[in-house]
Design a protein that fits this description.
Blueprint (H helix, E strand, L loop, with lengths): L4 E2 L9 E6 L12 E8 L3 E5 L3 E7 L9 H4 L4 E4 L9 E11 L2 E8 L6 H9 L4 E15 L5 E16 L8 E2 L25 H8 L2 H4 L1 H15 L4 H9 L4 H17 L16 H17 L15 H11 L9 H9 L9 H20 L8 E6 L5 E6 L21 E6 L2 E10 H5 L4 H31 L27 H12 L16 E4 L4 H8 L18 E4 L8 E4 L8 E6 L6 E6 L5 E14 L5 E4 L3
Parallel strand pairs: 5-10, 6-10, 12-19, 16-17
Antiparallel strand pairs: 1-9, 2-9, 3-8, 3-11, 4-5, 6-7, 7-8, 9-10, 13-14, 15-21, 16-18, 18-22, 19-21, 20-21
Helix pairs in contact: 5-6, 5-7, 8-9, 8-11, 9-10, 11-13
C-alpha cells in the first residue's frame, strides 16, 4: 500500500454522512427501553460519488480520531431513519458511548411513547431494525491498495445521531446480544448515496420475474461482463454468475460484496506513527483539554498531557492558534487573549474556548453527580420531548379468570385506570471566564463557578423532589384524587407516631402489603425496600438496621440487612418513610428533556463581560405517581 497523504478538498464539517448496518441480536431491556449497539466499525464500506468515483471509506476508531463528547453528554438522539423534521422523529436518546475492541459501542434508551412501542416489540422479539450512524467529517487521508483502488480514511469525525433504519451498509454494526458479543451476518454492502442501494436484495430478486432467466443472454449477460470489467473483476467471476442465472442487479450487489471482502483482507491501517504527537491538531486539542481539566480539578495530567502542565493559558491558546495556521500576537497579551477567544475575521468562538467549555462541563457534571440526592433511586425515569404535561396512566391488574362451563360464553373483563401528570421546567444560570483571567493565567474562579453550578443543579433537583414529600405539613403533595400522598384515606400513614423499631416497621410493612390495586379489590402486596430518614435520626436508623447475631430468637431484628437506608438532610425532624422498589410500584417520577440527564452547557462570547460566557441549563420535572408503594410514620 502506498503511503497515505492528506486529501486535497476536505469534506465540509456541516455535511452529515450516514453509515448503516444490519442488527442481528439484542440487549434490549423491555422494562427500561435500554439497549446497546455497535454503531460503527473500521470495516471498509464501498462508496461512490461524482468527485471520487468508486472508493472505500474507513472510519478510524483510534481514540484521537473519534469525537465522542456529544454522544457521552446525552445530546445525541435516536432517530427514525435519520428524519429530524419534528420532535416525534426522535424515538430515543444515546446515553453513553465508548470504543471497545475496535468497535464504537453506544448505550441508548428508547422513548416510552406509544408510537415507538412497535420498535420496542421488534427489539424484544429479537428481530430488530438496522443501525445507522449519522456523522460529520472534519479530516481525512487517502491511500491506494496494491491494486490501485482508492481508500479514504476518516481520521477526524464526529457521530451526531444514531438511527434505526431499514437498509444497512456496514455489516458489522448491530444491536448487541445479551452478552455483548458481536453477531454480524454477512450482508451485501451498498453505497448509501446511490438510489440503487435503496432497494433490499430480496426485493431485487423478487422483481426479476420468470422471464429474467430467458432474457439473460440477450440482455443481462453483456451488462454483467461490462460491469465486471469496469470493476476489475475476472471473467471467471462474471461467467459464474451468468451460469447461476443472476440478473444485473444481483451481480452489482455481488460485486460490491466481493470488493468489500477484498478490502477487509487488506487490514488497512488508518493512522501513521506521527498521529499521536503534538504535530497532530486533534491530538494537541485532546491534550490541551486534559490539561485544562486537570488544572480545574487540582489533579496532575497524565500521559502526553503532562508535557503541557507548566504552560500558561496563553501558551496553550497560542498552541491552538498555531495548529490552526495563525501567528500568535505575543506583543500584546490582551490582544493575544482576544485572538485566542475568537477566530480571525469573525466573532465566533475558536477552538480554545470550546476546550474551556468542555472542561468546565466535565467539572460541572462531576460536581453534579457527587451532590445528587439519594432519593433519585426512588424515582421512575421518563424522557420528555417537549414541555407539555406528562401523563402517567395506571391500569389495574387484570380481572380474575372465570370458569367457562361447557358451551358457555367467555365474558369480557375490564381494567380500571387512573392518571397523574406533571410538567418539566427549565432552570439556568450563566457563569463566565474573563479575558483578564486568561491573561493572568487564573482558572480558579472559572473552575469554582463550574463546580458550584454543578452542585446547584443537583440541589435544585433535591429541593424539587423533597418538596413533593414535605408539602401539606409533611404529608406530601396532593395526587389526582386531591388527597395528600400520605393520608389515612390512602392507608399509608401511621395512626400513631413512633420511632424506628420492630413494632412500628412491622406496622408499616403490613400496611404496604395490604394495599389494593386501583380496582379497590386486588391485593398487590408490595414490600418495603428503602428506609428514608433525615440526618437527625440517621444514627438511630443505622443502629437498628445493623445485623446482630442474637442467641435469643426473640431479640433477632427481622429487618436487619433487608432495608436500604437513604439519608436526605432536607428531610428534617423525626419522621421516617418506607418505599418499595420503583420497579414494583413507582411512587415518584422524574423526567428530563430529550433524555439529557443533568445540566447542559452552552457558550458564547461575552457581552456583559469581556471573555467567554457559559450557560448551564437544566430541563427537569418531578411528579407523584402512586401512594401504594410508600408509608409514613411522623416519628417520635
Amino acid at each position: 500500500m502506498t503511503k497515505s497523504r492528506a486529501r486535497r478538498p476536505q469534506p465540509a464539517a456541516t455535511d452529515l454522512h450516514v453509515r448503516r448496518a444490519p442488527v442481528r441480536a439484542t440487549t434490549f431491556d423491555s422494562a427500561t427501553g435500554a439497549f446497546s449497539a455497535v454503531i460503527a466499525t473500521d470495516t471498509p464500506v464501498a462508496r461512490r460519488d461524482g468527485e471520487y468515483g468508486d472508493y472505500f471509506e474507513v472510519l478510524s476508531l483510534a481514540p484521537a480520531s473519534v469525537r465522542l463528547d456529544r454522544l457521552k453528554s446525552g445530546a445525541s438522539p435516536i432517530l427514525d431513519s435519520h428524519r429530524s423534521g419534528s420532535a416525534r422523529d426522535q424515538i430515543g436518546v444515546v446515553t453513553d458511548a465508548r470504543i471497545e475492541a475496535g468497535q464504537l459501542v453506544a448505550d441508548a434508551r428508547l422513548s416510552p411513547r406509544d408510537d415507538v412501542k412497535g420498535i420496542a416489540t421488534d427489539l424484544a422479539a429479537g428481530t430488530p431494525p438496522n443501525v445507522s450512524v449519522g456523522y460529520r467529517v472534519y479530516a481525512s487521508v487517502e491511500s491506494r491498495d496494491r491494486e490501485g483502488r482508492l481508500i479514504i480514511t476518516r481520521t477526524d469525525w464526529e457521530p451526531f445521531e444514531v438511527s434505526l433504519v431499514a437498509i444497512p451498509a456496514d455489516p458489522k454494526t448491530h444491536v448487541r446480544n445479551q452478552k455483548g458479543i458481536s453477531m454480524p451476518k454477512k450482508h451485501t454492502i451498498r453505497p448509501t448515496d446511490s438510489h440503487e442501494g435503496d432497494h433490499d436484495a430480496d426485493t431485487v430478486v423478487a422483481q426479476r420475474g420468470e422471464t429474467g432467466q430467458d432474457n439473460l443472454l440477450s440482455r443481462d449477460a453483456i451488462a454483467i461482463l461490462d460491469h465486471a470489467a469496469a470493476r476489475g473483476m475476472s471473467v471467471e467471476f462474471a461467467r459464474q454468475h451468468i451460469a447461476e442465472g443472476s440478473t444485473i442487479h444481483e451481480f452489482r450487489l455481488a460485486v460490491l460484496d466481493e470488493m468489500a471482502e477484498r478490502a477487509s483482507r487488506l487490514h488497512i491501517n488508518s493512522r501513521t506513527d506521527s498521529s499521536a504527537t503534538f504535530d497532530n491538531p486533534d491530538f494537541t486539542a485532546r491534550m490541551v483539554g486534559d490539561v485544562l481539566y486537570a488544572r480545574m480539578t487540582g489533579t496532575r495530567p497524565e500521559g502526553a498531557a503532562a508535557e503541557l502542565a507548566g504552560k500558561s493559558l496563553l501558551d496553550l491558546g497560542a498552541m491552538m492558534l498555531e495548529q490552526r495556521g495563525e501567528r500568535p500576537n505575543w506583543r500584546n497579551r490582551d490582544q493575544l487573549a482576544n485572538q485566542i477567544l475568537t477566530r480571525a475575521g469573525d466573532m465566533t468562538t475558536s477552538d480554545f474556548p470550546n476546550l474551556l467549555t468542555a472542561s468546565g462541563h466535565r467539572v460541572l457534571n462531576q460536581s453534579y453527580q457527587v451532590a445528587q440526592t439519594p432519593l433519585l433511586q426512588l424515582c421512575k425515569r421518563r424522557d420528555a420531548v417537549d414541555f407539555r404535561a406528562l401523563t402517567q396512566v395506571k391500569l389495574s391488574e387484570a380481572p380474575r379468570l372465570l370458569e367457562v362451563k361447557e358451551s358457555g360464553e367467555v365474558k369480557h373483563g375490564a381494567r380500571s385506570e387512573s392518571a397523574e401528570s406533571f410538567k418539566l421546567k427549565t432552570y439556568a444560570r450563566i457563569f463566565s471566564i474573563s479575558r483578564q483571567a486568561i491573561v493572568n493565567d487564573d482558572l480558579g474562579a472559572f473552575a469554582d463557578s463550574a463546580s458550584a453550578f454543578g452542585r446547584a443543579a443537583a440541589q435544585t433537583e433535591s429541593d424539587l423532589l423533597v418538596s413533593l414529600l414535605t408539602a401539606n405539613s409533611g404529608n406530601g403533595a396532593n395526587l389526582a384524587d386531591n388527597v395528600a400522598l400520605y393520608d389515612a384515606a390512602h392507608g399509608n400513614k401511621a395512626a400513631a407516631a413512633g420511632g424506628i423499631g420492630i413494632s412500628t416497621l412491622s406496622d408499616g410493612r403490613q400496611a404496604m402489603r395490604s394495599q389494593k390495586d386501583i380496582d379497590g379489590k386486588t391485593l398487590i402486596s408490595v414490600s418495603p425496600k428503602y428506609l428514608v430518614v433525615g440526618s437527625q435520626i440517621e444514627t438511630i436508623a443505622e443502629q437498628f438496621l445493623h445485623t446482630i447475631s442474637a442467641v435469643d430468637s426473640t431479640k433477632v431484628n427481622p429487618f436487619g440487612g433487608k432495608l436500604t437506608l437513604l439519608v436526605e438532610p432536607r428531610l428534617s425532624g423525626l419522621a421516617w418513610r418506607l418505599f418499595c422498589d420503583p420497579a414494583e410500584v413507582a411512587c415518584l417520577m422524574v423526567a428530563y428533556l430529550n433524555g439529557a440527564d443533568g445540566p447542559m452547557v452552552e457558550q458564547r462570547l461575552g457581552w456583559d463581560v469581556l471573555g467567554l460566557e457559559i450557560r448551564a441549563v437544566l430541563d427537569v420535572g418531578f411528579g407523584l405517581n402512586d401512594f401504594r408503594g410508600t408509608y409514613l410514620n411522623p416519628g417520635a
